[in-house]
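Data availability (excerpt). The following record was deposited with the supplementary files.
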Amino acid sequence: MYRRAFGVLTAVAIAVAAAGCGDSGGDGDSVSVSLITKNSTNPFFVTMQQGAKDTAKTEGVELTLAAGKEDGDEQTQVQAIEDAIARGDKGILITTNGPGVNPAIKKARDAGLYVIALDTPPDPPDTVDITFATDNFQAGELIGKWTASQLAGKPAAIAMLDLFNDKIVSVDYNRDQGFLTGMGIPTGDKKKNGDEAKAGSYSGGAYQIVCNEPTTGAEDGGRTAMERCLAKNPAINVVYTINEPAAVGAHKALEAAGVKDALIVSIDGGCDGVQQVKDGVIAATSQQYPVKMAELGVKAIKELATGGKKPAVTDGKDFFDTGVALVTDKTATGVESIDSTKGAELCWGKS
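Predicted structure:
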């Protein structure tokens, strides 16, 4: 299961002092950093936490971990930021749960902390000093182009299984809009899900968008969302999912309904997800690299705290792009991809 628990989790945000105390430089002062993730159950964030721990130990950084209770929990993240300020941390790494966290980030920066976003660029991007993240629009665009190619001109009845419907988060709308753009479907407001035309033509033929349903990025949310979509149209043959846990839930709903030929596409690239591609549950997924994000973040704050220079964004982008690769065992002309064997070599969240 994608959404399996990693140890016993408390009902509140985890805040544990992690590995690695040591001198950060010649002045004898240690560098302390907080990593604040969206939650501590999704394998993506568990992997990110471990990557940060390993890098902190190597770099001699004091690391504190904190997390929201679930995706979208802004208040617990705000409290974790307040705690980092009170501790006198040099910097914060955060996968933000939404715009409600922005004022606390500003407070931290005003207090002299360097704040780096990981995975999810805030809105606006200059809320933080820099972001290390997947190009989420490109990740969505890759699975969209691949899907259009696989359909080979057949009509597309599409279910859009997003993250939220009650808040605006960049990772949500960028993946959604990227997928539609890859399919060749015109979008409306680039920062809003669900305002595109519900029917029309994609790059290969006719399309209908059956639904836009929130999943909160969870397996049970994906299953419930898919059930709602099937109630509207049992002939859905394309399912876009915000992440692989949601994709697994969608697959279970489709299986229960007896739907066998729907293409499920997703974004994450965890080891379980790559196995699902190999097993034919997920047709294609865009793989991202959370350990790289964590390593870059810890090292950047260490360097800044010891007199180094600020990291720079990727040319032409307002963030540092940590890379993405399409994983599928069915290639598509004009869409670069790797197969599940290669994806397994690069995946994260190994058991």
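Summary of structural features: The first strand starts at residue 16 and ends at 17.
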